[in-house]
Each structure stands twice: as structure tokens, then as C-alpha cells.
Design brief:
Layout (H helix, E strand, L loop, with lengths): L4 H18 L3 H21 L8 H9 L17 H5 L5 H15 L7
């Protein structure tokens, strides 16, 4: 049976939705990056460093060919609950995204 393009796209979106219901979505990752960006901006302002600019501009750079290698520089990896406590109601989101990023970026501990 040959599927139409619309049916293939529908099935693909459904698979993505099913996967997203089980874990971290791209939107959650972008939200965590935005929160981390604002956290970094706040920290830099407190120490007198220049403002790195709005998240939207940085996101455009990361989406460019030149900036692709830098996207993960802002992804949260730390598993320190004290750090995520600074994100208030978003602490659970940050911890969940950080766990996924850590699993992808860092090798597992010995014996796991």
C-alpha cells in the first residue's frame, strides 16, 4: 500500500507526539535554554559584564550554519538541585532537560 504524503506526515507527527509524551520535547529544551540564557544574563549583569543580548538573536545565530556548534553551550547539564531551585516553578523542567542533556553529552558512570 502506497501512502500519500499527507498520510506519511500525519504518521510522522503522531510518532513525534507519542515520543514527546514519554520524555522531553524540543519545546521543553528550547524553554530550558531560554531560562538558562536569562539566568546567565542576570549573572553577567550582576558582575558588570556586557549584556549578551536577547535570546531570540542568539537563537537565530545558533540556527545558522556558523552557530550550530555552539547551541549546546547553554544546555543545562548540572544535577545540582540547589541550582534548579533558583528557577522556581521551572525547576522540574530544568532538572528533566538537564538529565537528558547529561545522558547525551556525558559518558555513563562506571558500572551503570
Amino acid at each position: 500500500m502506497v501512502l500519500s504524503n499527507a498520510e506519511r506526515q500525519r504518521r510522522f507527527r503522531q510518532r513525534l507526539k507519542t515520543q514527546a509524551d514519554q520524555g522531553v520535547t524540543p519545546e521543553m529544551i528550547e524553554r530550558a535554554a531560554r531560562l538558562m540564557w536569562e539566568y546567565v544574563r542576570k549573572q553577567e549583569a550582576e558582575t558588570g559584564q556586557p549584556d549578551p543580548g536577547p535570546f531570540g538573536e542568539r537563537l537565530q545565530f545558533w540556527r545558522s550554519r556558523k552557530g550550530r556548534g555552539y547551541w549546546d553551550e547553554l544546555m543545562p547539564v548540572d544535577d545540582d538541585p540547589e541550582l534548579w531551585g533558583e528557577f522556581g516553578a521551572e525547576a522540574d523542567l530544568m532538572a528533566k532537560v538537564a538529565a537528558v542533556v547529561r545522558a547525551v553529552r556525558l559518558p555513563p558512570d562506571e558500572g551503570t
